[in-house]
Amino acid sequence: MKSNTKRKRLLVDSVADRVEQLLVQMTMSEKIGQLSQLQGGSGVDQDILKEAIAAGQVSSLLNEVDLDTVNELQRVAVEKSRLGIPLLIARDVIHGFETVFPIPLGQAASFNPEVVKSGARVAALEAASKGINWTFAPMIDVSRDPRWGRIAESLGEDPYLTSVLGNAMIDGFQGDDLADAGSIAACAKHFAGYGASEAGIDYNTTNIPENELRNVHLRPFKAASEAGVATFMSSFGDLNGVPATASKFLHTQVLRDEWHYDGFVVSDWESISQLSIHGLTANDKESAYEAAAAGIDMEMTSTTYRDHLPDLIEDGLINESEIDGKVRAVLALKIKLGLFENPYTDSKDYEQISNPEYMQEAKSAALESLVLLKNENQSLPLSVSDKKSLAIIGPMADAPYEQLGTWIFDGEQKISQTPLQAIEHLITDDVDIHYLKAMDTTRSRDDGSISQAVELGKKSDVIILFLGEESILSGEAHSRADIDLPGNQVELIKAMSKLGKPVIAVILAGRPLTLSNIVDDVDALLYAWHPGTMGGPAIAEVLFGLESPSGKTPVTFPKVVGQIPIYYGKKNTGKPATDESCVHIDEIDAKAEQTSFGMTAFHLDAGYKPLFEFGYGLSYSEFNYSDLHVNTNSLTIGNSLRASVKLSNIGSCRATEIVQLYVRDLVGNVTRPVKELKGFKRITLDAGESTVVSFDIHTDDLAFYNREMKLVTEAGDFHLWIGGSSATELRTEFSVTKP
Ligand code: NOJ
């Protein structure tokens, strides 16, 4: 252990030494060049680009994925520029490269850090084989608004789940050592508050009080910084009146002074030059000043640093030492990545892209991301022995591109295995498959196809509908105000439900859709998110019972859009709703007097509960929780307690349950959420098997930011629940006492 620490120290020293050796040789123009990221790829004049690289004016390129070009440009940087500093080659490798894993929100449904880590590992290996050494992932914006298109790219609504899975992703991308072949630098984005944009409109203003910012939105970023994420990216958003890209509070006070983060921060795409569009600055020079002074190290695509930092230094507004600090962080990453020793990439050093092993990993991730939301009368799994014909209907049944989801620049749709293909492959010849796409896209409104679907349904023993939304309906700048199933899909479901046949709906989508208008019309509902390259086989194996579904919702499913934001970790309010206190709009007497007496916090037309709560998901088996206990009811600050529960598989098949532990701090210096996830475990049990599942909770895990913005664990009483979703009622208590 000691010698390891020493070795690390030596390495750190040598990185720092090497940085200084370079820095002393650099001109100011070369230093500013190291803070500049430009666009590569087709459409960019290669001669101009090479000239700029040779002149030491470019530190990083994004979106250049042609390996020969990458190597050629690296050669210009290494052999033609004065100091031979190699380039960072950046790309949005978000949930896979050519082999696409489920969208991050789908991966989060697995509650499995190992799945998330291996997805990132495969993505890193494939991307690195093309010369990419830096990805802009993970996106760890806590996302509580399904209208926001980028919720697809998030790890859901919970700060703890996002922290654990975000760190797993960082681990997968960065590997054990950044210098290893196949390790690429990760980027924690978007710092910060981007996920809380008003009305779920992308890029919109965010207003988040500091206490909530620290207790919710900053937590995954703090965890990422502690996990050694190589870079951060600033958010496009205006946070409390100051665009995040100009926020000294975020980038200097919190990130550097409080968290002692030593990586570097890149702006988002032109987010520095956009400061004037926000109305914070009058021109690019002021924008460059605001961003540089706030703590942004590298500028993505716009050129305000290159154009104005020399004057800002000349004017004495920015110190040379501030520039040196930024350059040091950038150079340190290039050294740690081993780029000075190995600037070029030979794809022969890597496994074949999309090889069977990577495809298998993508399938396991897709399997674990599937969430069974409804299964009336055990309609699933389907047994083919007593079914002679299946109707497979819907625009998402055989849509190789659409099942990949958002942010798949390099995703290869030719290798996608669709649900239709997988079902055809899986079932025997004596079962007839009647397939109808029915709608051109999920948004189509052609009534004729519904009658065709009905005819097909009549001829079939069971109807499987593949519905949802195409990839392009979520992702950056693709927010929706109405998140019902688009087009004629609701009408299609209703028509099929009248046939008296079992109706199974499989939804492929980038967000939790509002499904209360169809949930009663289907017998079973399987949520597949956008499951990626291997989504088809994963879905088929679950539908036909080769695997039991195990995913749980990483985000709350609202009944209607008007409930948003709705999330399990809400505050209690002074008038919390109960089933008894909720009055439905239809029950109100027109002459009833207005009163606040006995009234609570709910919607007259939607109540106070969601359609499906956070952490919810069924399996083909059934689990029972009992004997919840803690090893001590009184915990002194600085210590841990052990909470245990007996978990029994009381159903008829082997299955996996995601056991979740929640706490509530009953009284705080600031009000605390009604429940907070503090632990989860995936447990697989055979039918009839039981086990004891335990969690250790340290008092540090109970800490929160108080009114003074100090991280504290307060003495007092706590509730603790363990169960299969955030609605679990199996509860015990404990107290925290001062030492
Ligand atoms: C803008 C997006 O907000 C960011 O997440 C992404 O990494 C950059 N563009 C680069 O493509």
Q: Any idea how many domains? A: 3
Taking the sheet with the most strands, its summary is: 6 strands, mixed
Helix content: 25-40%
CATH superfamily of the largest domain: Glycoside hydrolase, family 3, N-terminal domain
Give me the secondary-structure category.
alpha/beta
Overall geometry: globular
Mean pLDDT: 96
CATH class of the largest domain: Alpha Beta
Care to count the β-strands?
26
Beta content: 15-25%
Architecture of the largest domain, CATH level 2?
Alpha-Beta Barrel
* Major β-sheet strand ordering: 11-16-15-14-12-13
Radius of gyration, Cα only, in angstroms?
A: 27 Å
Bound molecules: 1-deoxynojirimycin
Show unreliable segments. none
User: What is the third-level CATH name, the topology of the largest domain?
Assistant: TIM Barrel
